[in-house]
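hi! just following up on the protien thing from before. the input was this:
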Amino acid sequence: MTNNPLFEEKEIHCISCFFVLVYELIRNIKIGLYMNTKDDIVKLIEKNSLRKCESVQFKLSIPKDKKQIAILLTALANSGGGHLVIGVRETSKGVVLSNIIVSLDEVIKDLDYISTKLTTGFQYTPFIETILGVQIIIIEVAKPATTIYVTNQDVSPEMIYAYNIVGNTVVRKDAMVYRNVYKYMTVESFLLSLYGRSWQFCEPSKWNDKFEQRFYCATYNIPNSVGNTPQLFATCVTRVKNSEAAWKVYAHGQGLGAHCLQLELDIVELRKQLKASGLRIEEKIVNYKSENYISNLHLKSSIHYNKYFAAFNFEKFIDLLVLKREAYTYEKEVRLFIIPDMTNGTRNKWKNATTHNMHIEWSKVIKNVRIDKNCSNGEIKAIQQACFNVGIEPIFDKGKEPLEGGQICPVNAKQIEFKSFDIDEMPGSASITINQ
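and the predicted 3d structure came back as:
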């Protein structure tokens, strides 16, 4: 122990800072325990004890740009729910109230617009309160069943952004900014999907790649992890229109599995239909990492361990399930997850993996189709009949007209182009001459 007064002064200062931090932590925990309802918020304002935190945000006035409010409300929702207090400003001495003159009907009208037009929808309850003679607005935001996104339904509904709150700061945690997604299927899978009016999702333990099965099949001996690793089902789409690898992978079988199709999907309609199921839905862009990264991630010696397993929760579980080896970066994959039960679902591992069929109105989801030009007349006919079953009239290339007979095209069927395609086709003549 040094006798240098300067060092003693620094030690005292550090100890003081430590106790201040502990005090602030305890105070924030206490505040958090009593901020479950609007009435709790009112009491804390009256005591001048309310402070900004992950579950409480302030706005001094209602901004003209409604997107600002949309971002704050979605961030509160995605952080577990909370309150947005409008008409309050935080200072070093506490909170200062600013009178907000507006009717509850006006508030509800604005919130309805934000919920339906600027976000993917959130649950809220607005209140107008008079505290110490000053009128303020308190918006209570519920914890959502799935991630809420900010968007613009009238301009670009396919471009969505997710936010949450870290400390007192609103941060973007996710962005889905692609306009087109594509799904590859064998002819056989396509026929089954149309006749079943469904899309088969499978447990990740059914995936072929062991690196991708890894974290779904893992045993999680982590405190408070119960409910954070539920049974779920997934499927994948890609943002790439032309992928030779995908064509080769999906055209590898026999019979109806020897040829494939590529469906261009309406991502907005697909999201809408999945959400209508009432199940929790998650959509994530695949995160491509090295084999070493994925192999050693679960070890406490890994420098990336805390990123995923410290304060482990469902969001981190999903982050683990979108890890893929960087050798597959060319796929530009997006994964769609459905979670039937957040509490009681039991994950089936490896050979016990199961599937879940989601009801899909294919005539609304499919925008157009590219089909292997080597499909036989019989396959073309089978595709046509399956399309009729879901109200689609497939329009094939000239020279690919289906055989006669069978079911007649239903009235008001949606016309969708089915264009012949060969990933290996080379323009021009196969025979060339090179002169020097």
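Residues 5-34 have pLDDT under 50 and may be disordered.
The domain at 20-176 is CATH 3.30.950 (Methyltransferase, Cobalt-precorrin-4 Transmethylase; Domain 2).
cheers
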